[in-house]
Design goal:
The structure is a homodimer of 297-residue chains.
Chain A lengths: L3 E5 L5 H10 L3 E5 L3 H9 L3 E2 L3 H6 L3 E4 L4 H9 L4 H4 L5 E4 L5 H13 L3 E4 L2 E2 L1 H7 L2 E6 L2 H14 E8 L3 H29 L4 H9 L6 H12 L8 H18 L4 H15 L10 H9 L7
Parallel strand pairs in A: 1-2, 1-4, 2-3, 4-5, 5-6, 8-9
Antiparallel strand pairs in A: 7-8
Chain lengths: 297, 297
């Protein structure tokens, strides 16, 4: 049973996830470049370390939750990184969203030194992080997954090992393709309704009972009607995820025309100043180009 | 209470819908250009008429379920059409999928003669027609809707008056935008997974528990994995519906970039010979251009 856990990356996601591990009694050693984030974790019972290396020296399993692939690679493999402090057989669980290719590369570099990695990106946002209801999509070997599974189950509800290294990141990219296009589709439908003189709230309601039903229609459809673009899932993060799929598609020869268009729509929302808005704000660029707004009525 | 009901259009949808009305005791007078379809309805207790006009002469409410706007207009307003036989105050319920503008035009022509119309297109396919579980999206005036509601409730489960004339067709177009793009999104995600070497069945399963959940991911995702393209909802019908939205967007100045792309994908499946396949077969053109197939494993 794992008891000593490291945690690097105490942002809007990482801090509440670390908090959920502290609540159930894990000994947590943490690191972040932002001192106030470290202080908040320490106030909940964590021990502060001076570097990722020092976190690794005190942990059987180290969780990372970082904002980009470059930072994840630096924290795990760089100077003063986890790799310099990990004991033989120790494991990294990288819960950041990075590219599948990047995840495989980092896992391979660790494996060469007898160290293990699970890529385990999440869906569910800061609310899911706080409520420990994240969906966690994991890639890696079965033995390491079983070792870290009890930890993951304290942070999420729907935890799946999808395949080997990188498979978690592949699933996350798939998730973001489906969710992003569902948002765009609901936005187009509500704009179409409004511009045709039909109440978009009634259309959303009529569609929910049939084959068009989805969590996105239910929750983000309502957000669009309510003009509630306070995140939730931020545009700039979903944009990054969509671009990961675009880039992987380019490298592997995958035809993803809808996802490519989605990427353009994120560019448009960003141009409107919406990088920090909720991703349901994709409706705003469709509204602008249709000269309407999907308010109820 | 309406007792004498007309039914014109006894195809794959209309025949089982008429059957559901006969089962609960409505007196049905029917017409179709295909004699064997009429014979099947008569065998279930319907009376055959020689023309739409004669159907109207024997009915308080006439339901139409026809394959195109041109045919619906001909049957309702043309020579020997319903309009020539309807008594003052009688109503047409057009359950065909046609354009919102076409529906408004037909309703206006009837109104000039003191006749009523509800546009009430459906979602749910032939299975929904047989099981009386269709989603029915209605447009028209409240009094006429209330008059025909008991009939609609014998054919569907989720019956909504969304607005005035045309609003049912607008909702249907919205439904098809959302469903069509959800199919394309799930197809892109599964192709992405497979080409990344990850089992698309496991990805579908992992995604179902989270924010990517939808009826389309559940049912059509499974169809793609099972290579089950037996309809269900046919490509050529969904293609027609998508083109209705494209055309209305053109006329009203609505920016629907994803729906426009969807229209191109239907062209591609059609070019592959798939006009009669289930609409989940949109995955086949993405597979062809990615040189893969989303079989499990």
């Amino acid at each position: 049973m794992v008891k000593k856990v490291g945690f690097v990356g105490l942002g809007i996601m990482g801090l509440p996830m670390a908090g959920n591990l502290l609540k159930v009694g894990y000994e947590l050693c943490v690191y972040d470049v932002v001192p106030t984030a470290v202080e908040q974790a320490v106030a909940q019972g964590a021990t502060a370390a001076a570097s990722p290396k020092e976190v690794a020296q005190n942990s059987e399993v180290i969780i990372t939750m970082l904002p980009s692939e470059a930072i994840a690679e630096q924290v795990i493999l760089g100077s003063d990184g986890l790799v310099e402090g990990m004991a033989p057989g120790a494991a990294v669980v990288d819960m950041s969203t990075i590219s599948p290719i990047g995840a495989k590369k980092i896992a391979a570099a660790l494996k060469e030194k007898g160290l293990n990695m699970i890529d385990a990106p999440v869906s569910g946002g800061d609310v899911g992080a706080k409520e420990a209801s994240l969906s966690i999509m994991a890639g890696g070997d079965e033995a390491t997954f079983q070792k870290v599974l009890p930890l993951l189950q304290k942070m999420g509800k729907n935890v799946n090992l999808v395949g080997d290294s990188g498979a978690g990141q592949v699933s996350k990219a798939c998730n973001q393709i489906v969710v992003g296009l569902a948002i765009a589709a609901v936005a187009e439908a509500l704009v179409f309704a409004k511009k045709n003189g039909v109440d978009p709230a009634k259309v959303r309601n009529a569609l929910l009972g049939g084959f068009a039903q989805s969590r996105v229609l239910e929750l983000h459809g309502q957000r669009m009607l309510d003009r509630n673009f306070t995140p939730g899932g931020k545009v700039h993060l979903h944009k990054k995820d969509t671009e990961i799929a675009v880039e992987a598609a380019k490298q592997l020869g995958i035809y993803l025309p809808c996802n490519a268009l989605l990427s353009q729509l994120w560019n448009s929302v960003t141009a409107m100043g919406g990088s920090q808005w909720d991703h349901s704000s994709i409706v705003k660029c469709l509204e602008m180009l249709s000269n309407t707004e999907v308010t109820p009525g």
